[in-house]
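User: Watch each token:
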Amino acid sequence: MASPPGTLSRIVETALGCSVQACEPATGGRMAETYLLELSGEPRRAVCKLGGPSVRTGDVVEPAVLRLVGATTELPVPGVLASGTLRDGSGDPTRWGLYELLAGDPPTPFPSLDPSVRRRVVRDTGETLGVLHATHQFERTGGLGIVDGSLRICDPKGPNFPEQGRRLARLTADYGAFETRPVLTHGDLFPGNLLVDESGGITGLLDWGNAHVTTAGYALARAEMRFVDWFRFPTPERGRLRTALRDGYREHRPLPADYPELGRFYKGLWLAQSADRIRRHLLSERGRRQLGRHLRSLLP
């Protein structure tokens, strides 16, 4: 590990009362500048993130979301050691967070995993979504922002694709049977944002900076895209993975009634949302930096 930048040293000294002995940029940080730290006190190791605004609202919401999820579920999310705002007079204030360093390894490259391990990862991912959706339900979709110091649902920047999917469900003949009440979801759930043990059990759910409120069917479709359709698995394996994801979800909540009929449409809508996200990233220097980190995280 290298010597820490002065910014990290000031944050740790102020927040935790100890010093940074060494630091290393994290290879998996997609939205925020992320560093792995070795500290002189307790905890001995931690993660520091600088920035990382939500693509939906522009606010840094990860500390607030992690506190909420950690307080209301038993999901393996990093504890928030401290968070705050850094003002150095040279530009916009920088939001920062110090987080617990969880044990485990990313399940990547995902296609190279033993099939039984891969299916365990996917099943646990389904359970994660089921827990989130069963625990946190709302009256509207939207991004998450910080308003008067508290986490709030806000209108997203750009089109609200999950809401468009919700409106489509209302046009179908079976709308009365659909549960389209909005739910909390991770927002960037894919293998690279997980930590797992040797058997594929999830030990860490990382990078909650794009958490938002969507519909359960839309969130499940996105997860199926990122854990199944994204990869060139043989058709029988794709079927087994889809079954694992849905069975895990059913452990905590019935499968969304709109999903069998509208799942394919939700996947297409998510691809359109991703294209819009890239377009908006390219409009600003900060967005281009975030996009660069995102693309680097996809490389082997």
Observations:
- The chain has a mean pLDDT of 88.
